[in-house]
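Dear Dr. K.,

Following up on our conversation at the group meeting, I've run the structure prediction for Nucleoside diphosphate kinase from Microbacterium foliorum. I'm pasting the input sequence below exactly as I used it, so you can double-check it against your construct before we proceed with anything downstream. Let me know if the numbering doesn't match what you have in your notebook.
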Amino acid sequence: MATEETLVLVKPDGVARGLTGAILARIESKGYALVDIRLVEPDRDLLAEHYAEHEGKPFYEPLLEFMLSGPSVAIRLAGNRVIEGFRSLAGTTDPTTAAPGTIRGDFGRDWGLKVQQNLVHGSDSPESAARELGIWFD
Ligand code: RTP
Ligand code: MG
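The predicted structure tokens came back this morning:
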């Protein structure tokens, strides 16, 4: 099976809460390889490109505001079926219903915060991964 790459982001809530290390520990325990990692303070243009598929949706503006609220950690991650595998580690989008044992299920808070504050991002397909890695790393 061919090795894949994916873009993982520890979003501003994860960085601000000091959860980067705990999240990286889960990723490394799973056996995925950190190919590149950097702290990024994205501007609006970068985020608009990254989230182009969501433009016009009700959560788009709050999502961009949240992503502009502080730095994210961008990770180029490699491994066998890592795209699907990382999304499994992350759990479903809404931290309230994400399964215990997942990053969002274990660390996602539910005290009136928004769905977008769900700690991590992971590319959802090989095409998305190539596109998003180009945005955050090149
Ligand atoms: P991600 O792209 O961050 O890995 O998460 P995902 O595939 O599970 O979620 P997606 O549908 O791609 O949405 C991207 C991000 O937008 C925020 N969101 N808010 N109803 C809402 O308020 C809502 N829905 C989505 C989340 O931050 C989600 O991760
Ligand atoms: Mg997505």
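Two things stood out to me. The chain has one domain: 3-137. The pocket of magnesium ion (ligand 2) is lined by residues 124 (CB under 6 Å).

Best regards,
J.T.
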